[in-house]
Amino acid sequence: MAHRQHQISTPDATQTRRIASRLPASLMASVASGLLLGACSWIPGSHLVGINETAAPAGGSIGTVVADEPQAALVGHDVLARGGNAADAATATALALGVTLPSRASYGGGGACLISRPGEAAQSISFLPRPGTSKGADRPAGTPASFRGLYLMQLHYGTVEFNDLIAPALNLASSGITVSRALATDLAAVRTALLADESARTIFGRGEANTLAAGDSLAQPRLAGFLERIRVAGVGDLYNGALADVYVTAAQKAGGGLNDDDMRQTLPVQTDALTTHQGGINAAFLAPPADGGLGAAIRYTTGASAQGAVAAWRASGNTTLAAAQAALDSGRSGNGSLPSLPASTSFVVTDHSGMAVACALSENNLFGTGRIAGSTGVVLSASPARTPQPLLSAAILRDQRSLRAVIAASGQNEAADAVGDAARAAAHDAPIPHEGAGRINAIVCHGDDSCRGVTDPRAAGLAAGTTNDSTH
To answer: Which residues are in coiled coils (predicted)?
Structure first.
């Protein structure tokens, strides 16, 4: 089978939807409008613009969302409840995570998503930050890749206008969230370094010496203004327009070393997924450049170390999908190891039509550079030139009749091994294992109408699934 690989950039929305020739140096003028518009745009009980309300089934399962952070999972679940599909819910979940878990899913970072629809070849979309190329940066940053990657997924698979899916995240940023256990744990882990930056301390600090704790409230009005600007002007404004200038200037002041060309060159890559067929199960995995998928696939097929396989892959210098598929088909493994890898987060989504999405997100370091991109309120990701590539891993399994499992993981060096082990278990109808440092989010199905969400019992995630409109 011929493998397809292409890059797609978002249209420059400022050419067709420009609301001003240039933004001022600060986004604070847009914050006020963001608060006003955001308050009206996502009201409990309201409908998403563009959704076919008859698409949601009257009974049975509408789908499931499983994520490391509960408030984001509920946003995705609400999109499913209002008739959105899995791509719509995944996009909304990822955007919500940028507000509720900015330690791992900041808009300054990126990630990868695996998408599968019944009867179609699964696709892998990677949207990874590029390193800043300006010299003299004292805290080198990566470019914000998430918006372009999510836009591409929504363009190809979604049913809702992308800007409508920004509204829930905007509302969370403006109205405030409750700090979850997941975010509080991350804040405590980097407390000293984070509080050393004045902008970060203003957002995440609790007094002079502490960070916010679980149960505290966190409002992010500057981030709300940033989201409102994108919602009004379009995603292209962040990469080709006035908002790009604002972000670059803020990143430079924070020591990030980004420039306009870095932003323009930040493009997502869509390819066929890596695939393997065993025992009547068709398994799809994230494809390079998200090479954790290759490690997970080799673990699934051979039981060999996923980390070792990825170490061998990175050492080989190969980068193409064809080479990765050949390595998988040959059962090629490795005995190497990887350095300490960046933190990540993951989530999985299914809908009533059998579509499935599994994503992993990262900032190349916990809280990225630990600095904020000025008035945007965005946590800058760490430069991929200064940190190892995160191990982004996900898998989707189907048999001839239905969906069997949707799996993604975090856990740094052990994420890919965890996905491979979970996929092996799901293929044999065994319980999903929760061992080692890997943290699994999964949806396991016995027929498309009988699926259940699975979170790691050691973590604080949420599986939000609906049968007859009940959440569990």
So the answer is: none
